[in-house]
Amino acid sequence: MPICPRCGAEVPEEVSVCRACGAFIPTMKKVEVRSAPSEQTCPRCGDPVNPTDTVCAKCGFTLRDATGYLVTSRDENTVRPSAASVNRFGQVTSDQLLAADRPTHAQVRSRGVRREGYWGIIVAFIVIAALAGVAYLGIQTEGFGVLGFYDKPTDLPGAPEAPAVGVVPVDAQRQDASNSRVASITVREGLNSYSWEELRGIARELSACEGRAAALSLAASYNLVAGTSIRDDTTTLTLTDGTQVTLRLADIYHDDLASGTGKAGLTFICCDTTAYALPMRRYSTNDGGWERSELRATLNADVLSLFPDELRSAIVPVLKLTNNTGHTADPAAVKATADLLWIPSTVEVSGPVAYYWGSDPTNTENYNNVLNAEGYQYACYDQMHLAAEQPDGRLVMYYQGAPIGWWQRSSSVSTTMRYRSTTAEGDPSMFTEATATLGVCFGFCL
Q1: Which residues pair with 337 in a beta bridge?
Q2: Count of Cβ atoms closer than 10 Å to residue 38 Cβ
């Protein structure tokens, strides 16, 4: 009866798996038992050896292998059958199977080399991943904060006169990265004459300009800028649920692309109507600022999903600087988030502020520094020459036919429960409880 090579239990002839330990039982065949010859010589040195010797007394050659048979070859590293080869190639004796479980010196050395090779690969992968992580952090933090987040606008020279409608500017010949075809954009009368696809193409050209002055000059050739001023034109966004929102061109070459590759060409923002009135937060807190607000999540998910496909695919994520701590007097709390849809900060609407905090006068300067670090004023608001803490009818927003106050993404730096806001009368210097329902003056970039 066969014997299990693993546990030694007896196994019936017709069984191929040991019932005691589950080991595979190779098919056994009778082999002739070879008796040791009466006269032998060492296959290495030729010196006579006794039949019972296992090692040559002269040269130390191993005379018998693991099965007990004489070695007749000078190759001491003869390859033995492996346990895996039983399943694939069939019959071996139980002695051979047991011998296969004992690795030779060459096999041990080979396994050691393989292990060292694996460790080398793992170490190389860790080093590459670490370098990639450092590079990514460098990009996301604009050189780890050394280079700054954005460039302030500079004095701009006068732009050339806009060409006649229908003329294609020389710079309008562009390579469309989305479909690798060359397209041209015809000059229209103004903002509302262009399709979203055409505005997307113009935005890419503007983004490729070397500086804001060059971008404004090119935008003037498309009748989007008059001289150095953004034209006071509007266009209508129709959402897929039928809701209509009036948008204005907020600025040219203003917002930093989240990819770190430059500036977004065009920035749009709601001007006199809003499709939504929502709370900033579910609870009365500004902890975590704009970054952790439910309004931010709603805009970039539910609201964005209602945009027409040609516009939604054209919107690019940009970096928005915001105090994402909440109640703080430390300008270092201002960090960047990458957003597709967003609402403006206090300084982006009002320009630099110099409020006085009677409740905490010793921190007045610090509070102003936090608010003023959240970007810089959009051209459309700068051209209004807004006066801080005074209502301006051009900032009045309507929701379902009635004036409504609207949110700014800035936290109220001196409290823990409020965010900055613009009143229904157009005063951009107010603050409101986070759970209040206000209009949503959203913006986006192409």
Answers
A1: 320
A2: 7
What is the arithmetic mean of pLDDT over 22-26?
64
Contact at 8 Å (CB) between 220 and 212?
A: no
User: What integer best gives the mean pLDDT of the chain?
Assistant: 78
Calculate mean pLDDT across residues 27-52.
62
Element (H, E) at 432: strand 430-433
Q: What is d(CA 307, CA 304) in angstroms, rounded to the nearest whole number?
A: 5
Question: What's the token pair of residue 211?
Answer: 């500086």
Nearest to 276 by CA among 436, 393, 437: 437
Instruction: Return the number of other C-beta atoms located less than 10 Å from residue 438's C-beta.
Output: 27
Element (H, E) at 116: helix 105-140
69 has pLDDT over 80: no
Rounded alpha-carbon distances, angstroms, from residue 349 to 191, 269, 378, 404, 410: 21, 11, 7, 17, 11
What is the DSSP track for 229-279? EE---EEEEE-TTS-EEEEEEEEES-SBBTTSSSB-SEEEEE-SB-S-EEE
Structure token pair of residue 25: 């039982």
Q: Which amino acid is present at 166?
A: G
Task: Look at 150 and 111; give whichever has higher pLDDT.
Answer: 111
Burial 141-152 (b: 16+ CB within 10 A, else e): ebeeeeeeebee
At 351, list the tokens.
Answer: 């320009």
Helix, strand, coil shares, percent, the chain, to 5 = 25, 20, 55
Residues, the chain, total? 446
pTM above 0.85, yes or no: no
Which of 144, 142, 202, 197 lies closest to 171, judged by CA?
202
Which among 375, 354, 370 has a CA at the least distance from the CA of 415?
A: 370
**How many other CB atoms are there within 10 angstroms of residue 350's CB atom?**
27
* Number of separate helices (H) and strands (E) present in the chain: 10, 19
Residue 81 pLDDT greater than 70, yes or no: no
pLDDT band at 183 (very low <50, low <70, confident <90, very high): low
